[in-house]
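Hi team,

As requested, here is the filled-out complex form for the pyridoxal-5'-phosphate run. I kept the field names the same as last time so the parser does not choke. Let me know if anything looks off before we queue the next batch.

— J.
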Amino acid sequence: MSSRSTTNGRPGIATSSVHAGCPESRPGSPVVQPIVRSSTFHWAGPDDGLDLRYSRYGNNPNQLAVAGKIAALEGTEAGLALASGMAAISMTILSAAGAGDHVVASRHLYGATHALLSGELPKRGITTTFVEPSDPAAWEAALTPRTRVVLIELPTNPTLRVFDIEPARRAARSAGAILAADMTFATPVNIRAAEHGVDAVIHSATKYLGGHSDLIAGVVAGSRELIAGVTKMMKLYGGSIDPGAAWLLERGMRTLPARMDRHNRNAHALARWFTTVEGVREVIYPGLARHPDHKLATRLMGGYGGMVSIVLEGGGSAADTFCSKLRLAAPAPSLGGVETLVSQPRHTSHVDLASAERDALGIPDGFVRISVGLEDLEDLKADFGAAAHAVLAPS
Ligand SMILES: *Cc1c(COP(=O)(O)O)cnc(C)c1O
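And here is what came back:
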């Protein structure tokens, strides 16, 4: 298990994360590209030999830097930066499907993606069949002659399931549909989805790609043709990224492999340690042999990721106490930043479900999702250890 390095003469992922997408250096040029706030760019006409530049088109220098960097990190022909992860997902789907068309999607999806597919797109004539992604036959069985998009997400939130991409890829190919994958939890450091046949690799860049909980953004990587289609939708629906956010995102992406290496190691060590902590009933992490997808995760992933989930013996009230006693880790939604955050799905992503429904999804009361940050492991253990102790011995 190590992050990927130089192959076939192509720069390795750490080199790409630092250099790709940046303009070539010249004597006197700035080492760091400035934020170009200009909404428009001088252009007299086609004889200028340049494309028309306008920041809603996604071709501002800061937007282009992110686009070039994500394409290099994913190993695809092209990339695109957008205003949010949801803009990346919705523009990708709308680029491939219209009224009368059909989507086959994993039933384990980010809440807003599920709401878009089940509540919003049907109003525009696009229907979705949700399938159980761990059943390889389910993908093929759900296809219709109008299936245009097959959508998968891994690892899943918050149960950290890892599914085989291959059955979804085969179904997409046989239908002539695109295979889109939300790889937010994995990052290109842990899985390069295009190498597994994913056509549209999507991230909420708000999370690990930005990495500092200080921006909202999304990215898509794929073939030139696919990205041209998504860009067309982005221009029309107006989902382009602000140059300031693009600059910050490009800066964050420079350290992605270095950060992921530590997220992976901190999370793995913390998960192992949690298995020894009194009052913790279950520890969910793809790197543990007890995880249902451990073998597959080992085959697919360069690292097991920075997310760990635990289930406390005392249920919801124990989890409330546990979270309230933390001093270093902070309760907040979102993930993927340098700081450790905790959240309870019953209060956030899964608040609309009844306790029994959450139970059936593998999210019993007492479930705490942890986005493990870059702090010293011993400090994190001390913080979580004290909180677990406070649950068992209320003062
Ligand atoms: C956060 C998230 C999104 C949505 O991203 P935004 O940047 O908030 O629009 C989509 N998918 C996953 C897996 C996420 O974690």
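Two things worth flagging: Residues 1-6 have pLDDT under 50 and may be disordered. The pocket of pyridoxal-5'-phosphate is lined by residues 84-86, 110, 112-113, 153, 157, 182, 184-185, 204, 206-207, 216, 218 (CB under 6 Å).

Thanks,
J.
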